[in-house]
Amino acid sequence: MAVQKSRRTPSTRGMRRGHDDVKKATLSIEPTTGETHRRHHVSAEGYYRGRKVVDTVVEFDADDE
């Protein structure tokens, strides 16, 4: 069984954890629609890099009649 030789100091522990923070997602603006979306992901309207790649369904609201 592995047993450490000496206790790790809080400083050393902090240096090891220095890269573990959660960063905000990088965002892009879709050139066709101007919509903001995550990088390398399809936008909510179904566009990726200026082209329509996913057919989106238009929501119908029954209150509009």
Provide an overview of this structure.
- The strands form two sheets. Strands 1-2 form a two-stranded antiparallel sheet. It has a two-stranded antiparallel ribbon with strand order 3-4.
- It has a domain at 23-51.
- The N and C termini lie far apart (72 Å).
- It contains one helix and four strands.
- With 65 residues, it is of the alpha+beta class.
If you average the pLDDT, what whole number results? 88
Structural Rg: 24 Å
Low-confidence stretches: none
Backbone shape: elongated
How many helical elements?
1
- Helix coverage percent: 10-25%
Q: Main beta sheet: strand number and arrangement? A: 2 strands, antiparallel
Order of helices and strands: HEEEE
How far apart are the first and last residues' alpha carbons, in Å?
Answer: 72 Å
SS content category: alpha+beta
Please state roughly what percent of the residues sit in beta strands, choosing from under 5%, 5-15%, 15-25%, 25-35%, 35-45% or over 45%: 15-25%
Strand order of the largest sheet: 1-2
The count of β-strands is 4
